[in-house]
Amino acid sequence: MDALSVIYEQVGSEEPFYRLVEHFYQGVEASSVLRPLYPKDLSEAKSKLAKYLIYRMGGSQAYVQERGHPRMRARHMPFKIGMKERDAWLLAMNSALDQTEEFKLFRAELDAFFEHFATFMINQPD
User: Fold this and answer.
1) What angle do CA 121, 114, 68 make, to 5 degrees?
2) DSSP secondary-structure letter at 69?
3) Neighbouring C-beta atoms of residue 52, cutoff 10 Å
């Protein structure tokens, strides 16, 4: 069991994950780097991210039941992701984490996870 897989149990419900995602997408909407990568309607993207984070952190399996194995790198291949996009994504996620009290106890683990995750998504040189 990894450090992330117990976060859901300690957070206690899905609601903080959905709030985290709302804060994250506020950052996306404000970012001239990230916003063009997303569809006009962010509803589906928000739902997918929340379900993925809940799944990854030990909660409901709904993400996998609906979409299969995460295959995050493959799913993101259609989008140009370089260091600029990675850095903007991390800025938005870090801001979201700062705004979501329930995740403060897990900040070191989440920072390491999201840094690795965002770097792994890079698929183009800048």
Assistant:
1) 60
2) S
3) 19
- List all residues 6 or more positions away from 24 whose beta carbon is below 8 Å from its beta carbon: 49, 92, 93, 95, 96
Digit-by-digit pLDDT tens for the chain (126 residues) are 688 999 999 999 999 999 999 999 999 999 999 999 999 999 999 999 999 999 999 999 999 988 888 888 888 888 899 999 999 999 999 999 999 999 999 999 999 999 999 999 999 987
Provide the token pair at 91.
């800025």
d(CA 27, CA 29): 5
**Token pair 């920072």 is at which residue?**
111
Using an 8 Å Cβ cutoff, are 29 and 37 in contact? no
Q: State the amino acid at position 115 in one-letter form.
A: E
pTM, 2 dp: 0.93
The amino acid that residue 32 corresponds to is S
Q: Which residue has the tokens 């770097």?
A: 119
